[in-house]
Amino acid sequence: MAYFKEKKISMDIRRFKPIKQSRVSEEVAGQLKQSILLGNFKAGDRLPSERQLAEEFEVSRVAIREALRALGNAGFISVRQGPTGGAFVTELTFGRLADTYLDLFLSNKISIPELHQVRVLVEPEVARLAAQHVTDEYAGRLEAASAAENLPPVALPEDIDRKQALHFILAEMCGNRFYEGLVHSMLKLTRQVVEVINPDPWDMHPGNWHVPVVKVVLRKDSEGAYAAMRFHAMEFGERLIALERSFREENALRGRDLKASVMTAEADKKKRSIVGALSRLPD
Ligand SMILES: [Zn+2]
User: Fold this and answer.
1) Domain range for residue 57?
2) Which of 92, 125, 142 is the last residue of a domain?
3) What would the pLDDT profile of 179-208 be if each residue is shown by its tens digit?
4) Mapping DSSP to helix (H, G, I), strand (E, B) and coil, where does residue 86 land?
5) Which candidate, 28, 184, 265, 280, has a CA 20 to 30 Å from the CA of 114?
6) Residue 2 — pLDDT band, cuts 50, 70, 90?
7) Of 150, 175, 176, nearest to 165 (Cα)?
8) Higher per-residue confidence, 123 vs 37
9) How far is ligand 1, taken at its centre, from the CA of residue 175, in Å?
10) How far, in Å, is the centroid of ligand 1 from the Cα of 90?
11) What are the tens digits of pLDDT across the range 203-241?
């Protein structure tokens, strides 16, 4: 209590508020973000150079660089190197949402059992809605994705592509972009974890698991699609939870950590980090 009293007095007698250096870059980032959201800069557009921005905002280039880094991390821009490089406005996609969920998992704020709980809730509803939007084109894509799952075995990442393709088509078919975004986020997190656990693809998700789902969706049987997808989400989720648990237990004995492994795998993918690229931004 005494601490707060003392603190209050010292604030009262102080005449000026200290200005944090980070405030400047935050304001720059805020204005740039607003400009992007208002459509002044569209996806694919190049932002003015670091030097031009510094002149226009009347701030240091360090502050501009910090603001661009924040916008890059938030997924609003991407930085390309080379003579035609610069900071480019990116298309807002579900990918950003997916990255956020992955970060939450990595910082222990969501777990695989929690992911499973949501998948079991969302995916059956997605399948139910998808069954109401079957067109010839969608039917063709569902059949092709289902057939591809039974092609000769491939490495795990390609196997995951094959198995997730069907879920993505259903998400697109469901007609609700919020659900679609959730499905992309859930599947991306699932993929990261499965890639690190590295199970036998057939053990993780056999190639014939989607057959009952596709059958009822193509019959435009909404309730049947709901039930079939619920069954599938349950059996897959239970398997994932069990595999993740045993992976954790095995690796705890060896002093390794699942999250650290996922982070390392992610870092490998993003070798050309935005920090490194920013330092090479052309004027
Ligand atoms: Zn599946």
Assistant:
1) 11-92
2) 92
3) 999 999 999 999 988 888 888 888 888 888
4) strand
5) 265
6) very low
7) 150
8) 123
9) 19
10) 30
11) 888 888 999 999 999 999 999 999 999 999 999 999 999
In a domain, residue 276? The reply is no
Who contacts 93 (Cβ-Cβ below 8 Å, separation ≥6)? none
Residues 110 and 243 both lie in one domain:
yes
Dihedral sign, Cα of residue 172, residue 173, residue 178, residue 180 = negative
> Ligand 1 center to residue 64 CA distance, Å?
44
CA distance 211 to 207: 9
217 and 115, same structural domain? yes
Can you give the length of the chain in residues?
Answer: 283
Answer yes or no: is 259 within a domain: yes
Per DSSP, 46 falls in state: B
Rounded distance from Cα 272 to ligand 1 centre (Å): 32
Q: How far is the CA of 220 from the centre of ligand 1 (A)?
A: 19
CA of 167 to the centre of ligand 1 (A): 6
In a domain, 274, yes or no: no
Q: What is the pTM of this model?
A: 0.70
Q: Report the alpha-carbon angle 159-210-156, nearest 5.
A: 10
